[in-house]
Amino acid sequence: MPEIQANNGNSLPYGSEEELGRKLFKKYELGKLLGYGAFAKVYHARELSTSQSVAIKAMGKQRILRGNLTSHVKREISILRRLRHPHIVRLDEVLATKNKIYFVLEFAKGGELFAKIAKGRFSEELSRKYFQQLISAVDYCHSRGVFHRDLKPENLLLDENWDLKITDFGLSAVSDEVQPDGLLHTLCGTPAYVAPEILAKKGYEGAKVDIWSCGIILYVLNAGYLPFNDLNLMAMYRKIYKGIFRCPKWTSPELKRFLTRILDPNPSTRITIHEILDDPWFQKGYKEIKYPIENEIELKNFGQGEEKGFLNAFDIISFSSGFDLSGLFSNNGNRIDGEKVISKEPPEKIIEKIEAAAKEEGLVVAKKGFGVMLQGQNGNFTLMIEINRLTEELMMVEVKSSGLGPLGFDIWTEKFKPLLDSLPEARHIAGN
Ligand code: ADE
């Protein structure tokens, strides 16, 4: 069963009608439901300041916790934030309320590629174009240790230029899930796209499995139907296991040969991604697809276009132990490094309180954006207090120090630590 189903407009699942028109964080207006699955719903939404379309994937934290999926969601966050490629749906930001997590995703205007195939098969040229885009994105993921493991037409969307966008990494695995034998061991994927080694339940390599799924996708693009299909699930599995399929009569001999190399039931002899990139059928008209290098990603993604002092919630979610954001308040000697407190107090109020306390202690105060720097009268120590907005309501206050002797440390423990503790609904999270 697919993780996210397209909304065919016939019925709206639980609780979705009241979401329409709702504002999220005063930043997005929720539109119609695009799809839903067991743990998530995907909505069309508009960013209010720019009127730009986005897709918002909403997940209930309760459901996530009950389903013991915390690490699953954290993994999805860290996977998505590492991926930046023209044919992969971009993750713009992650927002969190008490009960929900929202992934703000690039909106793929053209909808599902699947819907287009349902209207009729593609020409060999068009099939090649989409396959080249798919392989470029998959190669990009694999070279970063990321395997999708659930590649299928439903996870392939189209943008406004009718170019491919891969979405939904909910079931993907990163290379650290590899067991000592070097193989992945989670059973996942949709039957018709599942590689034979997954059915054999003996562990598998993520890269090989994705290549198999790409082969099925290429077959479907060209044929308009599945290579291994049977109403009886066991019969379908048997066909997959044997790797016996027939190409329709319009398939060129080059494509037929290529498909046979991809849909090889033996993973150790199956074509590799590098061999795919070198194949003459694949190479025809292929222009290497450019993508930004890693350093540019960080700057573009997390520096620009965001409100000053606004930190993406997933930084915190990723670092904290569980969604309750509670943790230990740790000290190392006379040094405060990365102590974090979360509170609902507005940043101006926090700064006001810190300034008043600093005045009482005779400290020198310098304000910098949503931060305050406090110095001892003779410059002997510095306390940096930074405030970042996590969500509309939640602020994170982070404290760092330098040159803090016993006196400075006393000022911290007796004055500023209690001050932060007394902020409305203050909670500590571990520093790093
Ligand atoms: N359905 C699921 N994710 C989507 C996205 N990012 N854009 C458009 N439709 C989607």
UniProtKB/TrEMBL annotation:
GO terms for molecular function: ATP binding; protein serine/threonine kinase activity. Belongs to the protein kinase superfamily. CAMK Ser/Thr protein kinase family. SNF1 subfamily. This is non-specific serine/threonine protein kinase. Residues 306-330 form the NAF domain. Its cofactor is Mn(2+). Residues 28-282 form the Protein kinase domain. Its EC number is 2.7.11.1. It catalyses: L-seryl-[protein] + ATP = O-phospho-L-seryl-[protein] + ADP + H(+); L-threonyl-[protein] + ATP = O-phospho-L-threonyl-[protein] + ADP + H(+). GO terms for biological process: signal transduction. CDD domains: CIPK_C. It is an enzyme of class 2 (transferase). CIPK serine-threonine protein kinases interact with CBL proteins. Binding of a CBL protein to the regulatory NAF domain of CIPK protein lead to the activation of the kinase in a calcium-dependent manner. InterPro entries: Kinase-like_dom_sf, NAF/FISL_domain, NAF_dom, Prot_kinase_dom, Protein_kinase_ATP_BS, Ser/Thr_kinase_AS.
